[in-house]
């Protein structure tokens, strides 16, 4: 099956031609400070309007800015296809997390810079780089056949402004507007490759349960010399409580210790292996520092729970005084194994903490956020087409892995559109350091993913067109017929 008419340049050439513009667009988006919970609303509004303009320029006639209950708008763009054609949604988000200590960055986090062949800036990989990847794929198709630039698909681009909080705002928006989507396939560009230039599909995600705990032991602050000794100060109580979350090997004691014991033999979960040496290098683990937990590295990352103390509220060192604290707070995150009910994990964590509060300390537990786990069904036609497209674009076999993080929109799409195939990929790689200092993206990853996505869309449309002609019309069949009853 030819990829393009003989007179037109191949898609890879079109992608490379679009990369200068890709860099310009990414620089413009990185400069807009869409930091969740911090930036003023006008930054989000400017970003949404700019993305909408870029999609309109890419040939999408139906553009809408949809307000959410959290404030930032979701950009919706649609290019209708022929009657009965498959519907494909391309998803990414434009909100970003805090840069934390801006002085620790080698260059300004909100000015795209280039070093050693990578582009640096907050959101360059997560996830504005994926927004630009989608745009680059669309421009490659747009330039391929000027008279009929897009494949026979009903194509929707959905760019979210409230992904990072994991608060379900997109699901509520889609429930309020059931006419917006009826997808056969959803490409969620919010993950990445296990190594640079290694095409990767993410097939499972851990869930997430985050709580804030407050430990209180006193009615007021006290002088540590005058009262220290018999007095149970809250900070010491909190430290002792947090220490109960792991055993001496670093194995989490919640949500269920048996999960870790059962996986010590290394089930693998159907994922590719992750050699320990590669992981230590990717994670920057110092020489002589041991890894924690049991089981294979892949299991510990993707199939088993992890518990992390995200923050402890305490006086800063340069302002410390000899005082016994009456109360102390911490933020705790549990990454839950695929298939675990996140509500039960919240309950297990709360039960564990209440049962171990030292010295009768009073404990208040507040749920901050939840994110369900996700398992992809990879047996459908869309996944097969994407695997082939990634292989041909990168020139390497595709690896299928899990991911330790949580992406709430995956479960939202699964809940709302249970018959749609959900494909997870993206431009991130281990050097990207997403959510950390000096976040970056490789332009080669953007180009290769954009090429793969353009191939995917073209080949998916070609399959439908062939089936449509053979069957004499009718609905698209992207997965085996038995899995699409009643569609």
Compact summary:
This protein has 487 residues and is α+β, with helices and mostly antiparallel strands. It has helices at 11-17, 19-31, 41-57, 128-144, 169-176, 224-227, 234-242, 257-262, 276-283, 297-303, 342-354, 381-394, 408-416, 443-471, and strands at 62-66, 74-79, 87-93, 113-115, 118-120, 154-160, 185-189, 200-205, 207-216, 222-223, 306-313, 323-324, 327-336, 362-371, 374-375, 399-403, 421-425, 440-441. The protein is elongated and about 80 Å long.
Give a structural overview.
The chain has helices at 11-17, 19-31, 41-57, 128-144, 169-176, 224-227, 234-242, 257-262, 276-283, 297-303, 342-354, 381-394, 408-416, 443-471, and strands spanning 62-66, 74-79, 87-93, 113-115, 118-120, 154-160, 185-189, 200-205, 207-216, 222-223, 306-313, 323-324, 327-336, 362-371, 374-375, 399-403, 421-425, 440-441. By secondary structure, it is of the alpha+beta class. Mean pLDDT is 89; it is low at 261-269, 472-477 and 479-487.
């Amino acid at each position: 099956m030819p990829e393009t008419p003989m007179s037109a340049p191949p898609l890879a050439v079109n992608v490379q031609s679009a990369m200068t513009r890709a860099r310009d667009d990414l620089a413009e988006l990185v400069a807009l400070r869409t930091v969740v919970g911090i930036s003023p609303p006008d930054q989000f509004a400017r970003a949404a309007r700019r993305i909408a303009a870029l999609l309109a320029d890419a040939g999408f006639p139906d553009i809408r800015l949809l307000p959410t209950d959290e404030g930032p708008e979701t950009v919706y763009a649609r290019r209708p296809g022929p009657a009965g054609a498959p519907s494909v949604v391309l998803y990414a988000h434009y909100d970003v997390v805090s840069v934390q200590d801006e002085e620790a960055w080698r260059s300004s986090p909100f000015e795209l810079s280039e070093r050693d062949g990578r582009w640096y800036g907050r959101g360059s990989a997560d996830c504005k780089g994926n927004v630009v990847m989608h745009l680059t794929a669309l421009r490659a198709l747009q330039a391929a056949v000027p008279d009929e630039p897009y494949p026979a698909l009903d194509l929707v681009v959905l760019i979210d402004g409230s992904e990072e909080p994991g608060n379900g705002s997109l699901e509520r928006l889609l429930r309020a507007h059931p006419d917006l989507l009826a997808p056969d396939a959803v490409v969620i560009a919010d993950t990445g490759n296990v190594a640079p230039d290694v095409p990767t599909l993410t097939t499972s995600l851990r869930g997430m349960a985050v709580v804030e705990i407050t430990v209180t032991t006193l009615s007021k602050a006290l002088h540590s010399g005058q009262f220290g000794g018999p007095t149970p100060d809250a900070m010491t109580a909190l430290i002792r409580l947090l220490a109960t979350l792991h055993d001496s090997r670093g194995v989490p004691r919640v949500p269920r210790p048996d999960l870790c014991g059962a996986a010590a033999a290394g089930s693998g979960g159907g994922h590719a292996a992750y050699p320990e040496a590669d992981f230590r290098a990717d994670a920057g683990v110092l020489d002589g520092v041991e890894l924690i937990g049991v089981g294979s590295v892949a299991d510990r990352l993707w199939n088993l729970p992890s518990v992390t103390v995200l923050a402890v509220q305490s006086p800063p060192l340069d302002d410390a005084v000899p005082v016994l604290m009456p109360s102390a707070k911490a933020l705790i995150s549990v990454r839950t194994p695929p298939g675990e009910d996140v509500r039960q994990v919240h309950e297990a964590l709360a039960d564990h903490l209440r049962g171990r509060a030292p010295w009768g300390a009073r404990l208040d537990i507040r749920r901050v956020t939840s994110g369900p786990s996700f398992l992809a069904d990879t047996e459908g036609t869309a996944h097969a087409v994407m695997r082939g497209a990634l292989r041909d674009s990168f020139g390497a076999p595709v690896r299928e892995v899990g991911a330790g993080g949580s992406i709430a929109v995956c479960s939202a799409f699964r809940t709302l559109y249970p018959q749609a195939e959900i494909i997870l990929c993206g431009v991130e790689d281990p050097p990207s350091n997403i959510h950390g200092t000096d976040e970056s993206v490789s332009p080669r990853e953007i180009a290769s993913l954009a090429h793969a996505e353009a191939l995917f869309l073209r080949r998916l449309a070609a399959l439908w067109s062939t089936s449509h002609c053979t069957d004499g019309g009718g609905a698209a069949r992207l997965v085996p017929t038995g899995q699409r009853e009643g569609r």
